[in-house]
Amino acid sequence: MWSELKGLYKISRPLTTLTGGLAVLLGGYVAGTGAWDKVLLAVFATWFISAAANAWNDYQDVEADKINQPKRPLPSALVSPRSALIFSVLMTAVAIILAAFINVTAFVVALASATLLYL
């Protein structure tokens, strides 16, 4: 179980998700918003949708990664394809829910992004 959790952590590509979240945080700072609660929700929503996208990408590319990136969590069987898919969908749902707490526009953007992600 712990090895699969470690694999899901790796599949989320934490450095990539961190940079996305930091970009949102910096954007909130530069914009001079006083609504830091909303900015933090946006940071977390960004982290979750980025993790979802990375997991979905690995899920879709598992056959190519068996040749090109065999040490990644899916090709190395650290994570099952089913777990990667569930993780991706769960992270997407969390991101959309968080965006809904920001405002309607953020919710619509998150929903549209998620829809495009899975097309």
TrEMBL record:
Transmembrane regions listed in the UniProt entry: 15-32, 39-56, 85-118
GO CC annotations on file: membrane
Matching Pfam families: UbiA
Residue stretches in coiled coil: none
Keyword line: Membrane, Transmembrane, Transmembrane helix
Name of the protein this chain belongs to: Uncharacterized protein
Organism lineage: unclassified sequences, metagenomes, ecological metagenomes
Species for this entry: hydrothermal vent metagenome
The keyword Membrane appears for this protein: yes
Location relative to the cell: Membrane
InterPro entries with a match to the protein in the record: Prenyltransferase_related, UbiA_prenyltransferase, UbiA_sf
Topology of the protein relative to the lipid bilayer: Multi-pass membrane protein
Leader sequence residues: none
Gene3D superfamilies: UbiA prenyltransferase (1.10.357.140)
GO MF term set: transferase activity, transferring alkyl or aryl (other than methyl) groups
